[in-house]
Each structure stands twice: as structure tokens, then as C-alpha cells.
């Protein structure tokens, strides 16, 4: 009996357990240990970032960004509705209102041509979300932000190691946020990082993630005791998880290369269906270098997409949809939004199907996925 073809399976490099054992043997299991520092240094050097600090999640990184930007009650934040709830929640917790802007039909990223009309006197920041590891149009977004004196927070949860015009995602705006969740290319199960691209935020960010204390200065010997100096929370990731993550970061380029091969195999095999108008494949603009985070196809209708999910599942091939647009959710509607407000997001969300995509996917399994798609659609 054939084994099921899973949608996702975590990838192990081989060094995760040895590195975690080093942490256990050291007796220092808490945050900002040796491997946390190694991750910080690796990410800063690799991505040419001013400062990178590990956090418990990308959500936590976004929450830190909202505090660093001094988001207040009544402020407005511009973001796409086609995203995970954390993109909005991080700013809602500070009292801000989400102002949604529809997405582009090609990249599924925020439509930069619609952003400026959403800017008001209350707008404080733009939060582009780099969907599937493909960059939003950052030059245009930065120009709008500069014109209206707004901040840019990149939700690069899916964009670790992807680039826009030879700059790494997360390092282009004022602040960036990464995810190392179990479903991401490089992972530690649960984890994230905040990327600080403006020196003015670096010192306060250290304080925020140490529960509002100046403990980092104490550990560096800059003061003889530490105390409560600001608001904050426990945003530090355990060094056990940082050890797992560092093993993944060391092989990040190899991981990206292997994912590219799987991505291109899907694209090459399914392109004839796109030429027939049966499906649409992802679009990668020439200025973007993706990290091959996910592979999706767009079907003609939502009904067709749901039917294909069911047909694949009958063959023990597990595929899935993605985000339900936030403005159509029960909580999103509390802000006055309703279905029909952002038609591109609504249409693409209903028609998008994510295929099995992980480094444990064998060529034979991928070929089976492709054959079953052709049997259903071709």
C-alpha cells in the first residue's frame, strides 16, 4: 500500500541534536546563549543587516516592531488582507486600526498602486507581506512611505533568504520580521527574528525583549546592575531552539538550492496546463530572487480548487489552500469590511492550491503528484 504524500515534512540537517546536546551539557538553557549569538552574527553577516535579534516567533517580532514605532490608539496601519492574522494583530494590540489594500493578481503581494489612496493623517506604517518568498514592490512602497513620513515594516515571515534587487527581504524597510516556524524553509519549530535597519531602534529593542530591563548592558559589563527601564515582554528564544536553528542556517544555501529544484520540476511539468488556460503558475518578477518557500497553482474557480483537493486526497496526496482574506473574517468585519471590498484577494484565495513541497519529497512522489493533477485536469 502506497504511503501518503505529505504536504509538509520537517527537514533535518544532522547537526540539530549534537548542537542541542552542547546546550544541555552547558547547563545554560535560557535565551541569548552561545547559539543565539551565533544565529545573530550569522544573520547579520549573511543579510548585511544592522542588527538581528531572535524572538519567540515572527508574531513576537511584529509586536516588538509595533512598540518600537510607538503605535498608539487610533493609528492606522496599511497592509494586505491576504496574510496571516499576526500581520494585523501585532498592531491591533497597540490600539491601531488595520487598513487593508488589495493585492496584485500576479505576485499576490500588496498592490503598491493602491497604497497611496489609503493613506490618511492617521496612517503610521505600511506592512508589506512578501508572499511565498517573492518580494513586494519595495521601491514604490518606500517612496510612498518617504513622501508621507511613514514607517515600513516588512512581514518577511515567508521571505528568509529571498531578495529584491539584490537586497535581502527584511532589510529593506525600517524593520523586518522573520519566521522560523516548523513550516518554513529553515526552522526551529517555533521561532522568529526582528531585523533592525535603523540604529535608533537597536538599543530599545534589546530592552523590550528582556522584559523592559537593561539586562543586556549588565551582561556586557556596561552597568553594575540591571533594572526595569521600559515596557517589554519575554521575547527571548531558548538557546536550545537557537541551537536547532543554527544547524539549519549553516545549510541555508543548500536548502534553498534543493527547494529550487523541486520548484522548477513542478513549474516545468505543469506549464503545459498553464498554456492551455487550465491553471496558472506562480509569477516571479525579474527583480526578485525567491527562496522557493511554497509552490501553488491557481485554478479557474473555487469549486474546481476544492474538487482537486478532494481528488488528490483520495489518492493520499495532501494539498491545501492558504489564507482566508482577513477582511472577510468575523473579526475583520468588525472594522467595517465586508465581502466584495477586495475582489482580487477574495478570488485568488478561493482558487489557490498549495502542492506538497518539502525536502523529504522524493522525485517519484513529486512525479505522482504531477501525474494525478494531469489525470484530473489534463
Give structural notes.
It is a single chain. The protein is an alpha/beta fold. It folds into 2 domains: 16-249, 3-Layer(aba) Sandwich (Aspartate Aminotransferase, domain 2); 252-377, Alpha-Beta Complex (Aspartate Aminotransferase, domain 1). The chain has helices spanning 16-26, 34-47, 58-68, 86-92, 138-147, 202-208, 215-219, 239-249, 252-275, 302-314, 343-351, 363-377; strands at 51-55, 76-79, 97-100, 123-126, 151-156, 163-164, 167-168, 175-179, 192-196, 288-289, 296-298, 352-354. The longest helix has 24 residues, at 252-275. The two termini are 26 Å apart.
Strand runs, count:
12
Please bin the fraction of helical residues.
Answer: 25-40%
Content-based structural category: alpha/beta
Overall spatial form: globular
Quaternary structure classification:
single chain
Beta-strand share of residues: 5-15%
Architecture blueprint of SSEs:
Layout: H1 16-26, H2 34-47, E1 51-55, H3 58-68, E2 76-79, H4 86-92, E3 97-100, E4 123-126, H5 138-147, E5 151-156, E6 163-164, E7 167-168, E8 175-179, E9 192-196, H6 202-208, H7 215-219, H8 239-249, H9 252-275, E10 288-289, E11 296-298, H10 302-314, H11 343-351, E12 352-354, H12 363-377
Parallel strand pairs: 2-3, 2-4, 4-5, 5-8
Antiparallel strand pairs: 1-9, 6-7, 6-10, 8-9, 11-12
Helix pairs in contact: 1-8, 2-8, 3-4, 9-12, 10-11
Amino acid at each position: 500500500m502506497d504511503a501518503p504524500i505529505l504536504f509538509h515534512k520537517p527537514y533535518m540537517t544532522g547537526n540539530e541534536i549534537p548542537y542541542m546536546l552542547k546546550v544541555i551539557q552547558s547547563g545554560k538553557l535560557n535565551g541569548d546563549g552561545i547559539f543565539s549569538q551565533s544565529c545573530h552574527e550569522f544573520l547579520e553577516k549573511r543579510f548585511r543587516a544592522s542588527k538581528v535579534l531572535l524572538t519567540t516567533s515572527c508574531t513576537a517580532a511584529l509586536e516588538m516592531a509595533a512598540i518600537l514605532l510607538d503605535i498608539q490608539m487610533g493609528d492606522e496601519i496599511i497592509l494586505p488582507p491576504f496574510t496571516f492574522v499576526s500581520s494585523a494583530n501585532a498592531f491591533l494590540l497597540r490600539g491601531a486600526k488595520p487598513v487593508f489594500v488589495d493585492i496584485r493578481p500576479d505576485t499576490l503581494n500588496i498592490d503598491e498602486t493602491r497604497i497611496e489612496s489609503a493613506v490618511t493623517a492617521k496612517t503610521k506604517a505600511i506592512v508589506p507581506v512578501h508572499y511565498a518568498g517573492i518580494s513586494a514592490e519595495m521601491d514604490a512602497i518606500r517612496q510612498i512611505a518617504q513622501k508621507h513620513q511613514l514607517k515600513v515594516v516588512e512581514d518577511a515571515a515567508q521571505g528568509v533568504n529571498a531578495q529584491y534587487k539584490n537586497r535581502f527581504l527584511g532589510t529593506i524597510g525600517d524593520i523586518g520580521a522573520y519566521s522560523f516556524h516548523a513550516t518554513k524553509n529553515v526552522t526551529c519549530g517555533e521561532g522568529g527574528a526582528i531585523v533592525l535597519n535603523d540604529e535608533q531602534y537597536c538599543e530599545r529593542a534589546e530592552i523590550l525583549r528582556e522584559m523592559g530591563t537593561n539586562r543586556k548592558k549588565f551582561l556586557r559589563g556596561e552597568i553594575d546592575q540591571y533594572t526595569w527601564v521600559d515596557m517589554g515582554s519575554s521575547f527571548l528564544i531558548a538557546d536550545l531552539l537557537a541551537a536547532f536553528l543554527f544547524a539549519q542556517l549553516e545549510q541555508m544555501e543548500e536548502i534553498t538550492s534543493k527547494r529550487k529544484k523541486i520548484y522548477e520540476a513542478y513549474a516545468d511539468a505543469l506549464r503545459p496546463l498553464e498554456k492551455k488556460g487550465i491553471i496558472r503558475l506562480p509569477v516571479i518578477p525579474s527583480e526578485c530572487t525567491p527562496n522557493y518557500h511554497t509552490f501553488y497553482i491557481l485554478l479557474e474557480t473555487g469549486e474546481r480548487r476544492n474538487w482537486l483537493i478532494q481528488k488528490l486526497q483520495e489518492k493520499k496526496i495532501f494539498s491545501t489552500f492558504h489564507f482566508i482574506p482577513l477582511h472577510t473574517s468575523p473579526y475583520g468585519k468588525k472594522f467595517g469590511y465586508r465581502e466584495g471590498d477586495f475582489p482580487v484577494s477574495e478570488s485568488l484565495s478561493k482558487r489557490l492550491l498549495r502542492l506538497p513541497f518539502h525536502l523529504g519529497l522524493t522525485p517519484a512522489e513529486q512525479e505522482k503528484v504531477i501525474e494525478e493533477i494531469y489525470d484530473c485536469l489534463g
